[in-house]
C-alpha cells in the first residue's frame, strides 16, 4: 500500500467513525489493521513471511526499499523524521540501528519479547541490534562473508585451502593464474564494510570510544589502517583487479567470479544458493582472508533487524508480528528462500536449510558470524562512512597516506568543520 492510498483509507475510516460515533480499526476494507513492512529488496522471501505471519487480527503487507543501504536509510529517516505513520515495520541495516534508536524513531521492544530475542540470537546479532543497553530492533538474519574460490584455480596456484590464507596470497595466486579477485569497492556502504574488515583483521578499528559521540576516538590512522590501505592498493594496481572494481557492488563482484577468468571472491552467504549450481564441483569456500598472516581474520558482519516505528498506529500488533517474523522457523525458512543466514542457532536447525547446504558450509557461516567485526555502533556512522567513502574511493587512489587523510576528514565532518 502506498502512502497516499493508506492516507485515503485512514481519512475514509475517520469519516465513517464520526458518522456512526463508533471507533473501528483502520487499515483494510475488512476493518483488520494492515501492518506495512518496508523491506530491503530480495526475491520475495520477506513478502512470503509477511503472508505466513498475518493473522485474523492483522494483515502484513510489504513495500520495497531501494537496493542501496544508504538510500534505504535516507528514505526511512526522512519519513520517520516527519512522523509518517504509514510505516509500521522496517528492515534495518545494522549500521543505522544506533542512529534510528538515538533519534527516537523506534518503538520500545517489550521486555518479554526482548528477553526471548536475546536468548535465541547470536551474541553478535544482539550487539548489532542494541543501543544504549537495550535491544532496539529484533535480529532477523545475520550475514557474514567468507572466501569463495574456484577449486581449479587454487590448485593451479598451489594454494592449500585447508589452511588460512591471506589477502596477499590470493592476490598473488590470481596474478599467477590470470584470474581475478572480486570484492565490493564501489563508492557505497559495502566498500566501507570491506575496509572495516581489513582494519579489524589487522587488530585495529575505525573509531573507538563511540559513547563519546562526535568526540569518539578516530583510530583509522594506525598500523592497522595502513595494512588495510596496502591490501586495497595492491589489489587495485594488480592484474587480479576486475576491470569494474571501482563500481563493483555485490552483484558485479559475483558476476566477475562466475566469469571464465574468475578466481576468488569475498561475498555474502547467498553465493552458494545463487552460484553453486552454476559452478558445481568447482566452487570452494574457506574462512575470510587474513589481513596479517597468522592473525585471525575478522569477516564483515551484516544482516537485518526488524524495527517497529514509534509513529505506527498499531505498535502492539506490530510487536506480535515481529515475534513471528523473527522466530527460528521463519529465519530458517527465509535462509532457504534467500540464502541470508539466520540470526539464531535455532534457525540453523531448520531441516530444509540443513538439507540444502553442506554441513561444513553451515558450520563455516556460524564460525564467521562469531568472528565477524561489526561496523562501529554509533549514531554518527552515516557521516563516518560517507567520509571514508570520500577519501578511500576509488581503490586505485588508496595509498599509505589515505588513513591519515581520512582520519582528519572524519574528525572535521563530525565537528562541523567540513561538509560531505
Automatic annotation (TrEMBL):
Residues 1-25 form the signal peptide. SUPFAM superfamilies: Periplasmic binding protein-like II (SSF53850). The keyword Transport applies. Coiled coil: none annotated. Keywords: Signal, Transport. InterPro entries: Bact_solute-bd_prot1, SBP. It comes from the Bacteria. The keyword Transmembrane does not apply. Belongs to the bacterial solute-binding protein 1 family. This is Extracellular solute-binding protein. It comes from Nocardioides eburneus.
Amino acid at each position: 500500500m502506498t502512502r497516499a492510498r493508506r492516507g485515503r483509507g485512514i481519512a475514509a475510516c475517520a469519516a465513517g467513525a464520526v458518522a456512526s460515533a463508533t471507533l473501528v480499526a483502520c487499515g483494510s476494507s475488512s476493518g483488520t489493521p494492515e501492518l506495512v513492512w518496508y523491506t530491503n529488496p530480495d526475491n520475495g522471501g520477506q513478502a512470503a513471511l509477511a503472508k505466513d505471519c498475518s493473522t485474523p487480527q492483522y494483515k502484513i503487507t510489504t513495500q520495497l526499499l531501494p537496493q542501496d543501504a544508504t538510500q534505504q536509510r535516507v528514505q526511512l529517516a526522512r519519513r520517520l523524521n516527519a512522523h509518517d505513520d504509514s510505516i509500521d515495520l522496517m528492515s534495518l541495516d545494522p549500521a543505522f540501528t544506533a542512529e534510528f534508536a538515538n533519534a527516537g524513531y523506534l518503538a520500545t521492544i517489550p521486555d518479554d519479547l526482548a528477553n526471548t530475542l536475546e536468548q535465541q540470537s547470536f551474541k553478535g546479532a544482539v550487539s548489532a541490534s542494541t543501543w544504549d543497553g537495550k535491544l532496539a530492533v529484533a535480529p532477523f538474519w545475520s550475514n557474514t562473508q567468507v572466501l569463495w574460490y574456484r577449486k581449479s584455480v587454487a590448485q593451479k596456484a598451489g594454494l592449500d585451502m585447508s589452511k588460512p590464507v591471506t589477502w596477499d596470497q590470493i592476490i598473488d595466486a590470481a596474478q599467477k593464474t590470470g584470474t581475478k579477485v572480486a570484492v565490493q569497492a564501489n563508492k557505497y556502504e559495502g566498500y566501507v564494510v570491506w575496509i572495516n574488515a581489513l582494519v579489524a583483521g589487522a587488530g585495529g578499528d575505525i573509531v573507538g570510544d563511540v559513547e563519546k559521540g562526535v568526540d569518539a576516538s578516530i583510530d583509522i590512522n594506525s598500523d592497522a589502517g595502513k595494512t588495510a590501505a596496502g591490501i586495497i592498493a595492491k589489489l587495485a594496481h594488480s592484474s587480479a583487479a576486475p576491470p569494474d572494481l571501482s563500481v563493483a557492488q555485490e552483484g558485479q563482484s559475483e558476476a566477475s567470479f562466475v566469469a571464465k577468468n574468475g578466481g576468488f571472491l569475498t561475498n555474502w552467504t547467498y553465493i552458494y544458493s545463487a552460484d553453486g549450481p552454476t559452478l558445481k564441483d568447482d566452487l570452494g569456500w574457506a574462512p575470510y582472508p587474513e589481513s596479517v598472516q597468522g592473525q585471525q581474520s575478522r569477516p564483515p558482519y551484516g544482516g537485518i533487524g526488524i524495527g517497529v516505528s514509534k509513529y505506527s498506529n498499531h505498535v502492539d500488533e506490530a510487536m506480535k508480528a515481529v515475534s513471528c517474523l523473527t522466530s527460528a522457523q521463519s529465519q530458517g525458512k527465509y535462509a532457504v528462500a534467500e540464502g541470508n543466514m539466520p540470526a539464531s542457532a535455532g534457525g540453523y536447525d531448520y531441516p530444509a536449510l540443513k538439507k540444502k547446504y553442506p554441513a561444513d558450509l553451515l558450520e563455516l557461516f556460524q564460525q564467521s558470524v562469531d568472528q565477524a567485526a561489526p561496523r562501529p555502533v554509533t549514531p554518527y556512522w552515516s557521516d563516518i562512512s560517507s567520509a571514508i567513502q570520500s577519501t578511500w574511493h576509488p581503490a586505485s587512489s588508496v595509498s599509505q597516506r589515505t588513513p591519515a587523510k581520512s582520519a582528519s576528514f572524519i574528525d572535521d565532518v563530525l565537528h562541523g568543520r567540513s561538509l560531505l
